[in-house]
């Protein structure tokens, strides 16, 4: 509880506290939100946590409840600024999103949202905001599946696209937690029925303001895959055409993308001079935290 | 307006329409939300648009308004399902987030949110959801800045980290719209005061569930940069130590990360055999849409 002199210096707070106490039974009598503090001077308040200072389960929306939250947040921001805090993170369960406009009117913005929650942030100090960005790139992966016996590459024609006349490498967006090679092998199998094995990365495209990336950037990774079979059984829902094509035909085709012709030229060079001349190889290594590993892609050099 | 037989078949709709008409003056009398349809069978409704069927500016929150929206959304979903629509996208301005819990209770989830809006999605057909994921990777870039005269590499010690004793390559998260090399050059300059020039990519690490990536994945790209000067003027806010170190020392150091020793070994090999043996080179190419370009990273081969 606060001492009287502290309250007297803050008449607005007093009146707010009064409202909370006497009008909204479901709100805590504390006048600040409770959060956890991180080592970078940030505070995180989780409105879904029983410890955040908002009590009860709010099954209805009332102006009074939002008013009380507004006062509590204003008050908390004052205190955090006084304490020299930097970033404030406000995690809001999707069903409690009625609190979001209140936070927005006090300077919060969406940092990100995923499935059942949103995360809002506010930067307290003067000067530029140093809150780290959320994920900035979507990752699409294509498989350049090669038959060693015939020197052919697997190509497809998409359904539902302006580009349906073009022969492309099969591929798609990576699922959460997939490594590049895993995405390539999965997408190739889903689209064409061909089983394959990851060999290397051939090329990486970085493109900003990609249409369909919701304002974010796109990485398109082409993996070299070794075909483990050659009988095509393509997905008719996504694909209207699928065939094995001479790599040299893809390298000069007008009915494909510039990146596919680039890849085809790399492959032709690889067939001629050895794939060690075009591959970006892969190693799995242990991460410093938890029991995690990561994949490292680089040119392979002799062990020294 | 609807014909009488259509209304008779849908008694719930009738009662809902009645409520909208007679009790909430700020809601449209239309009984469905208006959206735009895309070529994949998706509907996008922007609650911030005057055309979405919700009229007026909602300066207050009332249960009635939310009830009316709930009816309208339920009704819209029925109609979209009947029409064979697949994905529904609901764009909600941050100040109108009070509508989000209503949508959530009808099966919507957050797809993403950024600054001043959130995007919710629902998948209508039976079977697995085919709504594309939002950006899945954050991108951090480090600069491996090399002095050609002394064969030294620029290394730093971070402030505020458990790893402050470790010598690391300077770097940080990419800003929106930056290419890998641009991030590396900017971060190196900000942290160390050293101007440099992008040469190539040396390695790419892919790591999932990265701490600090908000549940997303991390890409860490190490770029080879050529030092354009060697007088260090490091940022004391972020960095506690900065120096030029023999590459061979970094290659065997215990006070650095496994990835840094890997990079140092690549550089030693490059000094000995030529950087064409370790570089992943870069080209700028025109994109097929708008007047955009992209960067393509791959091994450089002779023009054929």
From TrEMBL, chains A, B:
Q: Which UniProt keywords apply?
A: Cytoplasm, Hydrolase, Mitochondrion, Nucleus
Any idea what job this protein has?
May contribute to the regulation of cell proliferation.
For this record, the Gene Ontology CC terms, alphabetical, are: mitochondrion; nucleus
| One term of GO molecular function | ADP-ribose diphosphatase activity
Q: Is Cytoplasm given among the entry's keywords?
A: yes
List, alphabetically, the InterPro entries matched. NUDIX_hydrolase-like_dom_sf, Nudix_hydrolase6-like, NUDIX_hydrolase_CS, NUDIX_hydrolase_dom, Pre-Nudix
Signal peptide interval:
none
Give the source lineage, highest ranks first. Eukaryota, Metazoa, Chordata, Cephalochordata, Leptocardii
Native organism is Branchiostoma belcheri (Amphioxus)
Tell me where it resides.
Cytoplasm; Mitochondrion; Nucleus
Gene behind this protein: LOC109487779
PANTHER family registered for this protein in UniProt: NUCLEOSIDE DIPHOSPHATE-LINKED MOIETY X MOTIF 6, NUDIX HYDROLASE RELATED
Tell me the protein family, please. Answer: Belongs to the Nudix hydrolase family.
Nudix hydrolase domain mapped to chain residues: 136-272
What is this protein identified as?
Answer: Nucleoside diphosphate-linked moiety X motif 6
Question: Which superkingdom does the taxonomy of this entry point to?
Answer: Eukaryota
């Amino acid at each position: 509880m606060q001492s009287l002199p502290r309250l007297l210096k803050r008449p607005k707070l007093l009146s707010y506290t009064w409202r909370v106490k006497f009008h909204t039974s479901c709100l805590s009598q504390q006048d600040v939100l409770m959060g956890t503090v991180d080592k970078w001077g940030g505070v995180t308040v989780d409105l879904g946590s029983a410890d955040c200072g908002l009590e009860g389960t709010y099954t209805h929306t009332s102006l009074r409840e939002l008013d009380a939250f507004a006062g509590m947040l204003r008050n908390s921001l004052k205190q955090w600024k006084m304490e020299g805090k930097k970033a404030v993170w406000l995690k809001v369960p999707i069903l409690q999103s009625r609190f979001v406009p209140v936070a927005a009117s006090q300077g919060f913005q969406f940092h990100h949202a995923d499935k059942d929650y949103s995360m809002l942030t506010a930067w307290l100090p003067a000067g530029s905001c140093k809150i780290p960005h959320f994920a900035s790139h979507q990752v699409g992966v294509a498989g350049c599946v090669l038959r060693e016996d015939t020197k052919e590459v697997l190509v497809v024609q998409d359904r539902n696209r302006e580009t349906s006349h073009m022969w492309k490498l099969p591929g798609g967006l990576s699922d959460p937690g997939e490594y590049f090679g895993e995405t390539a092998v999965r997408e190739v199998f889903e689209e064409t029925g061909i089983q394959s094995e990851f060999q290397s990365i051939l090329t990486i495209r970085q493109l900003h303001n990609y249409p369909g990336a919701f304002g974010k950037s796109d990485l398109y990774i082409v993996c070299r895959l070794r075909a483990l079979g050659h009988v095509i059984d393509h997905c008719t829902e996504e694909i209207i055409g699928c065939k094995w094509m001479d790599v040299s035909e893809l390298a000069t085709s007008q009915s494909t993308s510039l990146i596919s012709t680039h890849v085809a030229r790399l492959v032709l060079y690889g067939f001629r001079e050895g794939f060690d001349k075009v591959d970006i190889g892969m190693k799995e290594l242990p991460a410093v935290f938890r029991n995690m590993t990561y994949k490292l892609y680089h040119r392979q050099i002799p062990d020294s």
